[in-house]
User: What shape does this take?
Amino acid sequence: MQTASKQMGWIGVAALASLPPAPALACTLCHSPQAVSVRERLLSPDLWWNACAVVLPLLFLLALVALVLREPGERSQP
Assistant: This one.
């Protein structure tokens, strides 16, 4: 169980490291009006809605994987 808690610790560290206080950039190489427009469309009006639209299917998939992994192996044997 310690390895699972260590893995969760590393996942937590990675999650925190992926949320820097700097603004997100849609295009790291250019600062054109198009890049500014893309950033405004992605982040300004519906940031939480877009984030939930991405995260909820992933949570559903992880729940299915956890359900399959919790199934006892004895049921699969005839």
Q: What stands out?
A: The mean pLDDT is 75. The radius of gyration is 19 Å. The chain is about 65% helix and 0% strand. Residues 48 and 69 are 31 Å apart (CA to CA).
